[in-house]
Design brief:
With about 100 residues, this protein is mostly helical. The protein is built from 3 helices and no strands. The radius of gyration is 30 Å and the shape is rod-shaped.
Length: about 100
């Protein structure tokens, strides 16, 4: 997706430059500046979106790797990581709320 946006950005720049050079000086110079300016703006927008998508893909890839690295091992079948309540509450003293 990011590569497609880069291609669209550079092709929009090329088309805008071509149209500005071909039709701008013939009709009027204002059209020349509009075509060139519009092409530059569209090119910058597409390239910025492309860079944003690349950075988001890197963040997503790093988060998946970190999740895999830090995930605890699964307990064997039939067992649980959780302790029964009587083991947990044996040493715990409840506060009186009276």
């Amino acid at each position: 997706m990011a590569d497609l946006l880069k291609i669209l950005g550079f092709s929009a720049l090329a088309v805008g430059l071509f149209l500005g050079i071909m039709f701008g000086p013939v009709d009027n110079t204002f059209l020349f500046f509009i075509c060139i300016g519009g092409a530059l703006i569209i090119c910058v927008v597409f390239l910025a979106l492309s860079r944003i998508i690349e950075l988001l893909e890197i963040v997503a890839d790093n988060s998946v790797r970190a999740e895999l690295r830090h995930s605890p091992a699964k307990p064997p079948l039939g067992t649980s990581r959780m302790q029964p309540l009587d083991k947990v509450s044996k040493d715990y003293k409840f506060k009186s709320s009276d």
